[in-house]
Structures are given as C-alpha cells and as structure tokens.
Design brief:
The protein is of the alpha/beta class and 277 residues long. It has a single domain (3-267), classed as Alpha-Beta Barrel (TIM Barrel). It is built from 13 helices and 10 strands. The protein has helices at 3-22, 25-33, 41-45, 76-86, 97-100, 105-113, 127-135, 150-162, 174-180, 209-215, 233-241, 251-254, 259-267; strands at 55-60, 63-64, 68-69, 90-94, 118-121, 140-144, 166-171, 192-197, 224-227, 246-249. The protein has an 8-stranded parallel β-barrel, surrounded by 7 helices. The protein has a two-stranded antiparallel ribbon with strand order 2-3. Helix 2 (25-33) packs across helix 7, helix 4 crosses helix 6 and helix 4 packs parallel to helix 13 (259-267). The termini are far apart.
Length: 277
C-alpha cells in the first residue's frame, strides 16, 4: 500500500473509534430500521435495457491528497443536480473530511435532491461504517481491497447485502484482483461491482490502460467499473469497445466550470466547447 493510503487508514481507525464513542452502534441500527430500502445502485449502472451505453457514476470531491484543492466553489447538492440532469446513472460522494474535504452529511443532502442512487466513497475499515453509511441513506459503499483482508472484505460484503446496499469492490494490483474476483456476486448476485482503479496507489499516477490490462482476468466485464483517468469521449469509447460500460469520473468533471456540461461532453450528448463531438 502507498504511504498515503496507510496514513489515511490509520487516521480512519481513530475517527471510527471516536464515532463509536459518540454514537452507539445500536442507535445507528435503530435509525436504519426506520428507513425505506436503498435505491438499487447495481441495477442503475448495470442496465440490460441500455446495452452499448456507458453509465457514469459521477463523483463529487472537493480535494484529494494527490491533486490538492480541486474545486473552490463547492456545493455538493448543486453539483449532484447538475450531474443527474446531464445523465449520470448514479452519484459518488467522498465523505472523508481530513484528506478529501467531504462530510457524511453530504450523502443525505444529495440523496434528498436527486432520484439516482448515491455511493458513499470513503475508507471503510470497520462494520460500524457500513451501518453508518446506511443510516446516512447511502445506497452503496466503496470497499478497497488494498485496505482490507479477504476475511474483512467478505464480512463487509455480507453486511452490506443484508442492508440491501451495493458494494463497489475496488482493486488496483493484480494480486488483489485475484484475491477478490471470485467473491464478486457474493453472497448474492446483483449486489456487488468490481472497480478497477487506474490510479496507482503508490505513485498516484493514472493510466487508463490499466483497466485493459486487468480486464483479461475478469470473466464478466458487465460488472466492471473503470475508475480514474477518464477525461474524454474517446476514453469512454475505448472502454465501451472492450465491454466496459460503467465508469466513475470525478476529478475531470469537478475541475470544469460547469460539471454538468462536462459530463454531457464526456457522454457525447452535447457539442464540445471546441465545436467537435
């Protein structure tokens, strides 16, 4: 793991311990019991009715350790609405506060403002965070293979499915892909997606070709989500030709003056600013 990831995980464990002392797990369970079922994140992005169409999980992110501040005029709800209007199949929102400038409260705010499902993107190290995510009305959660043992990953996938949330299981290294790929679809099909992170967690560099390299080891490309390094309609088209119809895009969109327009351009549903496309 990258030093930066190790540092984030160490801080996260401290944050979780503090959260447990502030809000008991039983309180979260009571909140969850009072909520309606989550929106079906898996179905929203793996839509058999729209074969040949790219489904975008549009991400909301204020800053990151690798990029610094990405967007100064940061209004997560307004951006989520722009994304939905532009054709996003789902929304992803960073909730890590220290490193990414997020907040767990953004999940509920966004979900109340849009009709598409919402993914909580954070560094999950404890089952408490799964309950916390559902209590915040998240429809899906990110699980990073590089941050979890195989046993931990399975336990978190089981709990997430019990709460009817989709899991986006993210890998970068081949070793971790081999570790997790047989578990995608566990414990029931239709609740988990395989994310291939094109960002090297050691160098923080992105390479879209990383998806193509790992894709040969994946039996079902329909559940693959290509993450990071996707910046143009050509990138989207290359992935689609290889059978990858789900992408997660954040930094590229967040850097644009109009994130919604940028998403339309990425999907090829509006002329680009230079008059092409």
């Amino acid at each position: 793991m990258a030093v930066v990831l190790e540092e984030i995980l160490a801080r996260k464990r401290v944050e979780v311990a503090k959260a447990k002392s502030t809000t008991a797990l039983e309180v979260l369970k009571q909140r969850v019991a009072a909520l309606p079922n989550p929106r079906n994140f898996f179905a929203a992005v793996v839509d058999a009715r729209l074969r040949g169409t790219t489904h975008v999980i549009a991400e909301i992110k204020r800053r990151s350790p690798s990029a610094g501040v990405i967007r100064d005029d940061f209004d997560p709800v307004a951006i989520a609405r722009q994304y939905e209007e532009a054709g996003a199949a789902a929304i992803s929102c960073l909730t890590d506060e220290h490193h990414f400038g997020g907040h767990l409260g953004y999940i509920q705010q966004i979900r109340q403002a849009v009709r598409v499902p919402v993914l909580r993107k954070d560094f999950v190290v404890d089952e408490y965070q799964i309950w916390e995510s559902r209590a915040a009305q998240a429809d899906a959660v990110l699980l990073i293979a590089e941050a979890l043992s195989e046993g931990q990953l399975l336990d978190l996938m089981i709990l997430s499915q019990k709460l009817r949330m989709t899991t986006l299981v993210e890998v970068h290294d081949v070793e971790n892909l081999l570790k997790v790929k047989r578990h995608i679809g566990f414990p029931h099909a239709g609740y988990s997606l395989l994310g291939i992170n094109n960002r090297n967690l050691r160098t923080m560099e992105t390479d879209l070709s990383h998806t193509f390299r790992l894709l040969d080891m994946v039996e079902d490309p329909r559940i693959v989500v290509s993450e990071s390094g996707i910046r143009s309609p050509d990138d989207v088209a290359r992935l689609r030709r290889s059978g990858v119809n789900i992408v997660l895009v954040g930094e590229h969109l967040m850097r644009q003056p109009d994130p919604g327009l940028a998403l339309r351009e990425l999907l090829g549903t509006t002329p680009s600013r230079d008059g092409t496309g």
